[in-house]
Amino acid sequence: MQAKPQLKIVLCSPRGFCAGVVRAIDTVERALKLYGAPVYVRHEIVHNRYVVDSLRAKGAIFVEELSEIPDTQAPVVFSAHGVPKSVPAEATERNFFSLDATCPLVTKVHREAAIHFKRGREILLIGHSHHPEVVGTVGQLPPGAVTLIETANDAATFTPKDANNLAFVTQTTLSIDDTAEIVALLKQRFPNISGPHKEDICYATTNRQLAVKKVAPVVDALIVVGAPNSSNSQRLREVAEREGCPIAVLAQRASDLDWSKFEGIKSLGITAGASAPEVIVEEIMGAFAARYELNVETVSAAEENEFFPLPRSLRPDAAE
Q1: What structural domains does the chain harbor?
Q2: What residues are annotated to the active site?
Q3: What is the pTM of this model?
Q4: What span, in angstroms and rounded, lies between the C-alpha atoms of 288 and 268?
Q5: Residue 221: beta bridge partners?
């Protein structure tokens, strides 16, 4: 029997679920427990197929729009990414019992945008069009109040109505480096632009990218556990590539792996996007353990102990 080749696995820490994702998943699970199935969820609660499928199996019904939900007393949950103002308004109109699982750090961006609008500023949103978080933030304000800036080129060519009356906010799951470049450009062009007191890119996105920056240069390949529609997971893969890792791939499950890519590697980094569960990291490590003799180490970039409480109506003390 031939001995398995050695493979060093370097786990990035932190990785996987952030506090906002834990809160969102717990919101659906708690609603199912308190009210029974079905619980309707507008949009994937978090961008992860495994999580969505497991909640579906417990009785969650996922829809893209509220119009797909029949008249019901069942809870209706808004996803972690946040929703335009029109969505809660529609829910109220239809007398839905709605539960908002929007991440508090996304809500913070919504509030910032609303304050800038109230002060009469023209608002720039740095983010990716069509991402539900961006749709939600733009939808906090009247049409035309927010201009989307996706690239450095957008920042370089944007013409404001009044250069002294501008503000910017950002999506929470962007690349730290790309965003820093765009913000620097805006500040250079418009020195009086107002920005967030503390940047909008959330702690979890930042910490996961910092861990990848440490690991990517010292491994032969890096796997990001995450979904193709997960912004923060895609950014982790890009960060790994930018830091010089020769092979950086996104995988939703072990079955997605293209083994030909990993031939001859001696070391492998593994991380997971903020909506990817640790069981899939373990599943992927198991798949490598079947082929290699593993020795595993962890490289940590930050300690995380954030916690966000559940929506008020789901907290144990709410029933009393």
Answers
A1: 6-17+203-300 (3.40.1010.20), 19-103 (3.40.50.11270), 105-189 (3.40.1010.20)
A2: 133
A3: 0.93
A4: 10
A5: 247, 268
